User: Fold Chorismate synthase from Lentimicrobium saccharophilum.
Amino acid sequence: MAGNTFGHLLCLTSFGESHGPAVGGVLDGFPSGLPIDMEALMTAMERRRPGHGEFQTARNEADLPEFVSGIFQGKTTGAPLAFLIRNNDQRPADYKKMEEFYRPSHAGFAWDAKFGFHDHRGGGRSSARETAVRVAAGALALQLLGKFGISITAYTGQIGNVVSHLSPGDVNPVIVMDSPLRCPDPLAEAEMKILLTGLKAEDDSTGGVVGCVIRGVPAGIGEPVFDRLQADLAKAMMSINAAKGFEYGDGFAAASKKGSEHNDPYEEQEGRLRPASNHAGGILGGISTGEDIFFNVAFKPVSSISKPQLTAGKSGQVQHLSIEGRHDVCIVPRAVPVVEAMAALVIADHMLISGKIPRNIL
Amino acid sequence: MAGNTFGHLLCLTSFGESHGPAVGGVLDGFPSGLPIDMEALMTAMERRRPGHGEFQTARNEADLPEFVSGIFQGKTTGAPLAFLIRNNDQRPADYKKMEEFYRPSHAGFAWDAKFGFHDHRGGGRSSARETAVRVAAGALALQLLGKFGISITAYTGQIGNVVSHLSPGDVNPVIVMDSPLRCPDPLAEAEMKILLTGLKAEDDSTGGVVGCVIRGVPAGIGEPVFDRLQADLAKAMMSINAAKGFEYGDGFAAASKKGSEHNDPYEEQEGRLRPASNHAGGILGGISTGEDIFFNVAFKPVSSISKPQLTAGKSGQVQHLSIEGRHDVCIVPRAVPVVEAMAALVIADHMLISGKIPRNIL
Amino acid sequence: MAGNTFGHLLCLTSFGESHGPAVGGVLDGFPSGLPIDMEALMTAMERRRPGHGEFQTARNEADLPEFVSGIFQGKTTGAPLAFLIRNNDQRPADYKKMEEFYRPSHAGFAWDAKFGFHDHRGGGRSSARETAVRVAAGALALQLLGKFGISITAYTGQIGNVVSHLSPGDVNPVIVMDSPLRCPDPLAEAEMKILLTGLKAEDDSTGGVVGCVIRGVPAGIGEPVFDRLQADLAKAMMSINAAKGFEYGDGFAAASKKGSEHNDPYEEQEGRLRPASNHAGGILGGISTGEDIFFNVAFKPVSSISKPQLTAGKSGQVQHLSIEGRHDVCIVPRAVPVVEAMAALVIADHMLISGKIPRNIL
Amino acid sequence: MAGNTFGHLLCLTSFGESHGPAVGGVLDGFPSGLPIDMEALMTAMERRRPGHGEFQTARNEADLPEFVSGIFQGKTTGAPLAFLIRNNDQRPADYKKMEEFYRPSHAGFAWDAKFGFHDHRGGGRSSARETAVRVAAGALALQLLGKFGISITAYTGQIGNVVSHLSPGDVNPVIVMDSPLRCPDPLAEAEMKILLTGLKAEDDSTGGVVGCVIRGVPAGIGEPVFDRLQADLAKAMMSINAAKGFEYGDGFAAASKKGSEHNDPYEEQEGRLRPASNHAGGILGGISTGEDIFFNVAFKPVSSISKPQLTAGKSGQVQHLSIEGRHDVCIVPRAVPVVEAMAALVIADHMLISGKIPRNIL
Assistant:
């Protein structure tokens, strides 16, 4: 119930601060008997990791989760899966100026108001570093879902004003995986690169949108009226650093449509009734329909920029602030595996609640 | 933990089906000692109620919540506040055709997949009738918040492609309350009426957007990393029938902004540091900043339309379906008090968690 | 999460006060498709009901739960099961003196300290009247468990110093059901009656012990390390009014045993390994073993007695207080169905969590 | 909600297995700003640690919790407090025989039934090793409570049939701390030693009772009707390995008392009404009265004994089993700090829920 635990039956508890010794997580409620593919888990971690794209921060961290519980002889035991990810590359000197300033649009100001305290060294608990925990836990959930025919592909759908117009159903996970910007649309990606190069030169940043498509979810998961599948997905996504919006199916575009345009009529396919179109985004009344589930998550521009900003310091005097240190031009490519991970946790949780995944994998 | 309970310390449990004898709710964790203004509660109920707008369904229900627990001598006792809202105006005959068809984009199909069962009489638990419960509980939360200087105003921000361009800070609750469409912008409202009149003539429907602004929340509420204030608001909003998207602060528009445009620098006002602008929407790092909190919720077009739709019946044969019965052209004006109510539940819950509202009001 | 909701996946939310219009409950997470036997439910209600034994209070209430949600055409729908039990027989006059006194060992004193308020008319929320809700919800859970071969029998094991020495395995539910004192041992029951007659003449009361045996639970339910089966049973039992102790298996007697006496060795029976004895009480390491689960719950003597007590009134002056009104000499026979009900809720919840009962009964 | 997290607002998530690399915990919801006394924490850990009493197992583990989150510059930050306790002294060879046998009355049999799997190396997650996590987390809660004038003293009240007859109010924490058996009564302790020496010679074990007294809790904490203070205490205690029973106040002895004997009349003391006696054990109606809270927890005899037992192996054949390895004669002295720790977690949680401890300590 405390704020660092997420989920109903499958619960992730997250801990750790960006400049402490480690971040980590405890994933409880995971079925016993699943063989864990540590290489696949490392690939997922690698995708979130900063430092290997030209528009991303140069921190260099191996991000190897050390599992201390829940796996025996390569399989899950049913005990909580606990892991640590050490923080190896801390440079507190970069943050010295932060004792005098609240960085504009950064969590420090609000954190101070709440806890009477904020670790100025780089965000502490509000740092994007915390999302490494989600990716590690999500990688476990993804492996579990894979065993039940469910795949999840998140991707960069927009950076700044450059938008990929591929429909979710056409997104190819292989292309996304190979793309440095995690964009399924090579033409859009080329433009995104030009945009990012320009912003980097200006010491500025931009936002974007992560899309996500979930394939293979059977009809019947979701717990109305409050734990509707989209409500739990929305909470999961809006709990990610820098997320500003969530929409599923036709989303905000549905607002200006007519019912006769937006409705998905039924048709029979191979003796089974199913919606002929999928404006709904795979969920009706809070419950999965068996069609692809897809949604978008908007991210704000990175707030830490080197470009000087006029802002008042803690003493009240307005001054130019230029935030040094290592910062992404756009968080979106790195947010892609985080969105994927959180989606996996929600879907696995609801598959367990519905009894569609057993507690014990044989 | 089951799907019909919402909240952490202040919990609403909702029950009832649209064509059963009653819907109702239990609001637990509410402080003792608050005098309840039943007239104000009835006004809130009245605003949600169908049947008094020309674009809304003609059901006629008094919607008087009968309180059976938690109030003694006009004050809350600290015991759960339980109430019933009787369903007086049921016309099951309208729904006869629904035994043969799943209505396109209606919950029945998914509900059947989950429960092996769906009450064809009009949505059962998936009906918008259920939102009356939220409005009644939210009205109690609004009264509690009012005592602590917090006010919440939801409003119609968009219907179809007609958009109100008032900024959230300029929304006047008195104008909203007086507006039949709950729109704070009279010019936009006039256009909206024309649009709705046309759609009604076509037997069609449309969607829209509800905006909401929360004033007076102190800095420091919200429980990162998962129970961030915006995450709980997102879950609350996306649990409302027909909601398709949620955004706060600059929302999806933030995606195409630069950091230097989107950041809110600090300034000193009356000896206190505060953000000079509010692109953030009143929340940073998941915690309130003390500024106005504002967000939007997108709603899809009403799926029940009289305009004939080509769709397959349960037997598989494609046929024209024309949904008779009473249906709104646009749900948005009636969703306004529901959004307000759910926001009130989230804010009151977090005020209690943070200790900013005591369990016992003196 | 608020204090009036119990359970993990199967959640009972309880509401209502003894002297308000009704008590009631919402049982959420109950599988869809179970035919409900209303007569069996009424029989369970009848057993808890006061007024039909010579040592029990003379309140006369029909205690008919009115279901307002969750049942359609005689079967559960998967929606929350909500019910009201009207309070028909209120006699506030009996409680007039209570405005001047806190009744010794009654909840009023503590309730006042918490809520700044206590309904002097007879316990309000702390009244045993609230247990009617548990019995109604438990009756539904019992029907669900019955479908899966699980039966629960609670019984009077001790009244005052009169103890039934039947072992839990020998308790016959038919004898218990027929016994006015719910005692499986007719010789003990005869003595109990003599004891109670004497106490009634003295205007005094006594306590006792309710035993309970649960048969047919498969091995493998319970969620260590905190949601051990016995931990959830203990919480359930200790949440009942007047309960002072819980023990399972050999319980407190195990404290003075040797390991060699207390251990249950294994033996093979029909090709299956099982414990040859059952000192454990059917649970090891927090998980069911497949053997009978049995436990005891101690209840204190009824605190409301007509016999004069020397106690200080709210004004501080010590005076004789004689509590008029209708009171049981011993609560134990009426606590029997409450213990049974709470046990049913815990076992059904864990059967659902373990996936041993599906969410949808075909 | 998953089984390895305990608490409402203050939540302990426990992880780790006895023969994995570490056990550990995450304590979330802890107020910010409390200076942590690591020496006091180590003293608490030391008390639980095996290997320094002649009747306890000879495992030698430093049990130093390594904190990886939640403390900055010696104070709590409001972020989750996460810690690891490495397992240094594993001797899997001792457990080789366990691949062929389920140890009688040990968790392995039930664990296998649930997870299809049990770590035969020594209990895995069901090992008493897991309680080290509770003690570390409890030590933090004890420091928090100390700041608010609340102290908790658990003690050995019974070993085998040797009972200490000190009343809870007379228990002196200094004597308990100095006593090797954690017994407040030196005469009883002397007898307990003789008993344990005899049992050790027989290669047998025994059970016992841990008592606990909580001083300084203000009136008004506890959340009826289900999260009554005693219900949460009972769950906490019954979640401890080997616990078989819980009672508070007069407990099971209340069963045979009369109302007139058991009731606590009120008296005025220094202008304040309070109970003149405390049969209630400091809780009425689920809410603290301001008096001492006291309870007992029964523990079964240690099930791992070297004395040969006749039991069937997994193959079904009955054989003598003599469990080698390091085992306590009686777990009770080591359970004392575990009971204290769990009590501290419950009380701190309820103090936070009631708003009597703020989220931010100045």
